Amino acid sequence: MTARTVDAPLVASRTRGSLSRTQGLGLAGVVLGLLTTLLFGLREPSHRTAHLALRATGDTGGVHVPTLVVPVHLTCLILGVLMVLAGLAQATNARRSRLDTLVTAFVLLAFVFAFLAWADSGKSLALNLVDAGNGAMVRAVPLILGALAGIACERSGVINIAIEGQLLVGAFAGAMVASALTKPAATTTSTALWLGVLAAALAGGLLALLLAVFAIRYLVNQVILGVVLNVFALGLTNFLYDRVMSPHADSLNQGVGFPNLKVPGLSEIPILGPILFDGNVFLYLTYGLLIVVHVGLFRTRWGLRVRAVGEHPTAAETVGIKVLATRYRSVILGGLFAGIGGATFTIGAGVEFGKNITSGRGYIALAAVIFGCWKPRGAFFAALIFGAADVLASALGVIGTRVPSDFLAMAPYLVTLFAVAGLIGRVRAPGADGEPYQKS
Q1: What is the C-alpha separation between 174 and 280, in angstroms, rounded?
Q2: Helix H or strand E segment including 50
Q3: Band (421; pLDDT cuts 50, 70, 90)
Q4: CA count, 13 A, side-chain hemisphere, 345
């Protein structure tokens, strides 16, 4: 399931023809630059312009940011050439450097900007980049929380394919408990919603406990087990929806949700403010969990033990670390994260629960884990990419773009396929990821 490679000191022993992550990202940048130049630049008439709004819809206060008018032909040509040059510079350097992240970010942002300019070329309606960015953040929140679940599990050596199932049961439990505790036709109470979040976390944790018991205690193949748990979660939620929730939708599936909360001051920052600081509590909870997990994994004794168990459990046991207990705790903790992520589909969006409401987002979250190199920060940016690809279909559909909506709907899954296939370069998973451990 995971793509692996050797560490830098062992580059000489790498299989001939394999690419490092830096080289893979560089070649991807070259390809995107050529596509930008040939498809968006050279084929576009020189007189066409694109209108890109940089102010959130309905925002009448704060600093006025005018709509950006972009000459599509010239802009795409310049960005395409710069992307090719940046990609070539990165591809010719087999060793990682601090500039890799900046170069990759530039290539991705340049390609997205060029694509959006081309898609809006000649249209009467302006494409609102701030609204699209806010939508990308909303779509990315469950992916980030699901990715944190995968990181917590895989850093301890357990593959979590069951993220999809954990998101699904979390969405179901959160919607049902929050609705049951909210009086019909009454104002939603924060207590009921927070209890819904708690129920969602517990539901994800219970499914994670099943994963932990069968994977750690009974040594079941973790990939097969994860798929089975996903099917089990889908069947269970469908059954309970038909027999329990749907017949009592007025009391158990009301579509209640948290309101949006603007951060005073920060939400008024032009462009970035409405994107990063105008959302419901799940957005800010995700920020907090990202920081906690990152600091916990890489700055605390607990994180050192988890990573030691995931890299070399035998050595960890020799220094007194309880390998099995550490794995149990990490898997269950990951399930709690995923359960909260599932609640964002229902009480996070204020919509009713529906069958298979997660629609494969758990698998995309798993791809974000791999794309982000099993690090919270990397998974965050990977989830943003997938979230942006997801929101493009609806954003571009409003302005009547030339790109078929069905193709845009496939975008997040195509990006997922490229990430998992290792087309952006091989990445190294934790050394004992997916390998069962028996005490000696």
Answers
A1: 15
A2: strand 49-53
A3: low
A4: 29
The CA–CA distances, whole Å, from 372 to 25, 103, 186 equal 13, 16, 43
| Residue that is written with structure tokens 């990490």 in the block | 330
- Assess whether pLDDT exceeds 60 at residue 10: no
In a shared domain, residues 137 and 116: no
Do 105 and 141 lie in a common domain?
no
Where in the sequence is the domain holding 100, given as residue range(s)? 1-124
Domain count, the chain: 2
- Grouping H, G, I as helix, E, B as strand and the rest as coil, residue 422 is coil
Instruction: State the residue for tokens 């219970």.
Output: 206
CATH code assigned at 198: 1.10.3470
DSSP class of 93: -
Q: 324 and 233 in one domain? A: yes
From the number of C-beta atoms within 10 Å of its C-beta (0-12, 13-18, 19+), residue 172 rates as: buried
**Distance from C-alpha of 316 to C-alpha of 321, rounded to nearest angstrom:** 5
Question: Do 240 and 285 belong together in one domain?
Answer: yes
Do 172 and 200 sit in the same domain of this protein? yes
Tell me how far apart the alpha carbons of residues 131 and 199 are, in angstroms, rounded to a whole number.
Answer: 31
**Could you tell me if 116 and 201 lie in one domain?**
no
Mean model confidence pLDDT for the chain: 87
Q: Which two tokens stand for residue 336?
A: 């709690």
* Tokens at 157, concatenated: 């050596």
Q: Burial of 325 by CB count in 10 Å (0-12 exposed, 13-18 middle, 19+ buried)?
A: exposed
The predicted-structure confidence for 46-104, as pLDDT tens digits, reads as follows 888 998 988 888 777 767 788 899 999 999 999 999 999 999 988 887 666 667 778 88
Hey, what are 257's tokens? 């949700």
Tokens of 197: 């979040």
- Write down the pTM of the prediction: 0.89
Distances (CA, A) of 323 to 73, 135, 306, 429: 58, 41, 9, 18
Nearest by Cα to 144 from 366, 410, 403, 396: 366
Contact 204, 339 (CB under 8 A): yes
Q: Which of 338, 343, 336 is nearest to 357 (CA)?
A: 343
373 and 235 both lie in a single domain: yes
